[in-house]
Fold this protein.
Amino acid sequence: MKKISVNAIQSGYPVIIGSKVINNLPAELSEAKLSKRVFIIVDRKIYSSYGNQLKKIFSNWTEKIYFLEIIASESSKSLRVANKIYQVLLGEKFGRDT
């Protein structure tokens, strides 16, 4: 596993690269002191391949997990989809710490 630090204007974040890094997600989130309420926006094809694995990995770590499946396309990069994301976040009572 390799970690690369990305320095953005407002804050930085790590990018993790490697084989089977998906299994390390809870540990990485804990290390970053992130909320145990997880909202994942995922491509529908990726979710069909890894959704059950992600649920299993997070089942003992998270207080709440929600997956929002989106079709990967240019039409998904729209205000309509952004609004859908906000509506789900509000409806599921996710906060700014999510």
About this structure: The radius of gyration is 14 Å. The mean pLDDT is 88. Strands lie at 2-7, 12-17, 37-43, 64-70. The longest helix spans residues 44-59.
